[in-house]
Amino acid sequence: MPQPIPAVIDTDPGIDDALALLLALASPELDVRAVTTVYGNTTLDNATANARLLCEWAGRADVPVRAGADRPLGRSLYLAADTHAPRGLGHVALPEAAACAARPEALLEALAAAEAPVALITLGPLTNLAHALARDAALVRARVARHVAMAGSLRARGTQTPLAEFNVWCDPDAAQLVLDAGLETRWVGLDVTRQLTLASHDIERLDRTERDRRLREALRFYAEFHLKVERFDGCVINDPVAVAAVTHPELLGWSEVRVSVDRSDGIRRGQTRLVREDEDGTPAAFAETVDAPAIRALLDARVFGREAAA
C-alpha cells in the first residue's frame, strides 16, 4: 500500500468543513500533520474549538490545531452565522469556546513543523495562506507539494452573491495573492461542489452512533438553511470534494483556464472570472467535472459508517 500523503488542513468549521475534516482524518491515503483555523463560517475562537472537537470525534486528539487569522487582510469581518449557526456546528449543543489569540503566522509554522512536503487543503478564506506567502514564500513553495483550495466558481451561481463563492468573497485580496503565487493550486469550486448533496431523509437516518447523532444535529441546521434560501430539501456539502481531490484525484476532471479575482467592493466582489488570452489574468486549474456519487460513497463509508444510500 502506498505511503500516506502528509497533509495540513486549513479550515473554518463550519458544517461541511466538519465532514471534510472527519473524512480527511479517516482516510488512509492521508497523514494529517496539523490543522490550522481561520475566521469565516464562524469566529476564529469557535472555528478553533470546533476543529479540536472534531479531531476528538475522529479519535485524533493528537493532531495539533493552531489558530490563525481572525479577519481578512484588509476587509471588514463577515461571518456565516445564518448558514452554519453562531457557533458554526448548527444545532449541536456546544460549550462556550475559549478565547484564542489570532496568529496569522500559524500556517507557516505548521508547514515548517511538518518536516516534509505536504498536501495543503484549504477549506475557508485564503487569508492564512496569504499571510504565509507574505512572510516566507520560499518556505511555502518548498513545503507545499500540492495545494487544493475549496474556493471560487467559474459558471455556477455563487454562495455569497450570485457571482461570488463565500471563501473568495470574504478575502478576495488573499485569493488573488494565492492565485499569483505559483503554487500550482487546484481550485475546487462551486461548479463541482454543488453536485455533492445530502437529502433530508439521509440526514435523519444518522443515528447509529453518538457522533452520527451530533452530525445529524449539525446537518439539520444546514438543511433548514438550504430549504429556506434555495428551496432544496437537503444540503450541499462542498468541502469534502477538496479532500477527495487529494485522496482520489481520479474522481475530478480539470481545465486549465485564465482567471482574475474581482477585488472591488461592488456586486462583482470575489468573482473568479474567466478571462480571454488578451486580458490580464492568471493561469489556473479549476475542477469542472466530478464523480459526486463516488465521493458520497466515501463519506458514507468513512464518516457515516454505513453503505451508500440507495
Description:
The chain is α/β, with parallel strands linked by helices. The chain has one domain (5-302): Inosine-uridine Nucleoside N-ribohydrolase, Chain A (Alpha-Beta Complex), CATH 3.90.245. It is 37% helix and 20% strand. The protein has helices at 15-25, 44-57, 81-84, 106-113, 127-143, 166-170, 172-179, 190-193, 200-204, 210-230, 240-247, 292-302, and strands at residues 5-11, 30-37, 65-67, 118-122, 144-150, 186-188, 197-199, 234-236, 252-261, 272-274, 282-290. The strands form two sheets. A nine-stranded mixed sheet has the order 3-2-1-4-5-6-11-9-10, sandwiched between helices. It has a two-stranded antiparallel sheet with strand order 7-8. The radius of gyration is 18 Å and the shape is globular. It starts with a strand and ends in an 8-residue tail after the last helix. The model has no long low-confidence stretch (mean pLDDT 95).
What's the structural blueprint in terms of helices and strands?
Blueprint: E1 5-11, H1 15-25, E2 30-37, H2 44-57, E3 65-67, H3 81-84, H4 106-113, E4 118-122, H5 127-143, E5 144-150, H6 166-170, H7 172-179, E6 186-188, H8 190-193, E7 197-199, H9 200-204, H10 210-230, E8 234-236, H11 240-247, E9 252-261, E10 272-274, E11 282-290, H12 292-302
Parallel strand pairs: 1-2, 1-4, 2-3, 4-5, 5-6, 6-11
Antiparallel strand pairs: 7-8, 9-10, 9-11
Helix pairs in contact: 1-2, 1-11, 4-5, 5-7
